[in-house]
Structures are given as C-alpha cells and as structure tokens.
Design brief:
Length: 221
C-alpha cells in the first residue's frame, strides 16, 4: 500500500465506530494516533523532498529558456551578417532548446501537482490527528460509562433486584440522552463554523471582483 493510500485510509477512518467495535478501545485509539503521527512525519518528509525536486526542475527549465534565447540571439546576429548557414544552425539549436523547455515545463507542472497533493494530504491528516487526540478522552470516558452500566446491569440481575430495573433503564436513557445532546452541540458548532468560513470566502471573492471591475472602468478602488 502506497503512502498516500495509507494516509487516505486513516483520514477516512470513523473513530467512533472503531472504538465501538474494538475489544480494547483505549489501546486501539492510542495505536491509531501513533499510526497517524508516523504517517504524518513520512508525508511531511515527502513534501520536503518533492519541493526540492520541483526547485531542481524549475532551475533546469530556466536554464533551457535562457539557452533558447541565446541561440535565437546568435541566429539574429548571423542573419545580420548574411551568414545564413550559421543562422540555420543556430535556429536548429534554438528549436532543440524549445523542445527541452517544453519537456521541463511539463515535468514542473506534474511535480507541482504532486506537491499540492501531498500538502493537501498533510493538512487533512493533521486535522484528523487533532480530531483523534481531542476525542481520545471523550471516547474513553464514553467507553468507561458503558462498562459501568453493563456491570450495574449484571449485578442487578445477579441479586434479583427486579424492582430497580426501571431506575437503571432511566439512568441509561439519561446517559444516552446526554451523549446525543453533546454530539448535536458539537455538530452545530462545526456547521456554524463552516458556514462562517464559507461566507468569508464568498465576501472576499465579491470584493476582488468589485475591485477588478473598478480597475477596468478606471474607477479608484
């Protein structure tokens, strides 16, 4: 499995479901965080390597662009001196330099796309890692409550305290209701934050378009 595929799997992971299914949730969530931290370091290193490769390709691209310009200048000089054979030779070299320039440009574009992909994966993995760390204590507390309720139920059955069944059921319902309420509040907070960020992006784009329009009309921004 490739690096990006492993990262994608971690990003898509549903932490709540993983905890619910795990035999040892605390051990599982610690392992997930450890895996994410290891993958984060690998992606971060790969981003640095890819950026370095991009700079090398860009340098070679600029060198070929300069070479093409130099051969064109030599061809112009040869033409001025009526040296057509030399001009043709220089133009041939010019064409070769142009082809190499195009090849390096394509490589630079591909490398930039790879760098962007890796940077995007790094950001998403960092967000997922932060989510896992923030949820760790909450998920563990939830698991411990579930264990406590289960033990209470078994103890009640063992001593035959059927009269307390309704009380236990109400306690369980309150715990579940509290969890549901907390989850809903978190979802609303995230939704509100996302909407504010989207509104900010839209306002920024509107201002940019307005300034562009004023510029084209010669109106001071």
């Amino acid at each position: 499995m490739g690096l990006l595929e492993r990262v994608s799997t971690l990003i898509r992971a549903n932490l709540n479901d993983m905890v619910d299914r795990a035999e040892d949730p605390e051990k599982m969530i610690k392992q997930v965080i450890l895996d994410m931290e290891n993958q984060y370091l690998q992606v971060k290193t790969q981003v640095a390597v890819s950026i370095a490769d991009q700079h090398i390709l860009e340098k070679k691209l600029h060198e070929q662009e300069d070479t093409a310009k130099d051969w064109m200048r030599k061809a112009e000089v040869a033409v001025d001196k009526t040296q057509d054979d030399l001009a043709r030779a220089a133009l041939d070299r010019y064409q070769t330099a142009l082809r190499l320039t195009q090849s390096f440009q394509e490589q630079v574009n591909d490398q930039k796309a790879q760098v962007d992909t890796l940077k995007n994966a790094l950001v998403k993995l960092e967000q997922k890692l932060d989510e896992a760390k923030s949820k760790r204590e909450m998920l563990m507390a939830r698991h411990r409550r579930s264990i406590a309720l289960d033990k209470a139920a078994k103890a009640q059955v063992a001593v035959g305290e059927g009269s307390k069944s309704a009380t236990f059921d109400r306690l369980k319902e309150r715990v579940q209701h509290t969890e549901a309420t907390a989850s809903a509040e978190i979802d609303l907070l995230h939704d509100d934050m996302a909407e504010k960020l989207n509104r900010l992006d839209r306002d920024t784009e509107v201002e940019r378009l307005l300034n562009d329009l004023k510029t084209r009309k010669g109106i001071p921004a």
